[in-house]
Amino acid sequence: xxxxxxxxxxxxxxxxxxxxxxxxxxxxxxxxxxxxxxxxxxxxxxxxxxxxxxxxx
Length: 57
Known about the structure:
By secondary structure, the protein is mainly β. The protein has strands at about 1-10, 10-20, 25, 30, 35-40, 45-50.
């Protein structure tokens, strides 16, 4: 499942996106272990079936 957390860094809102199962996430064909984006970008990610190397389930 994709999880999203609100973060505040230096007074700015960000969103951290990651997989609860330790899988890579993907957006526009690029895979990430996790992503931190400015909140105003409203970026959407999908969960892949590819495990993050070294992640515990």
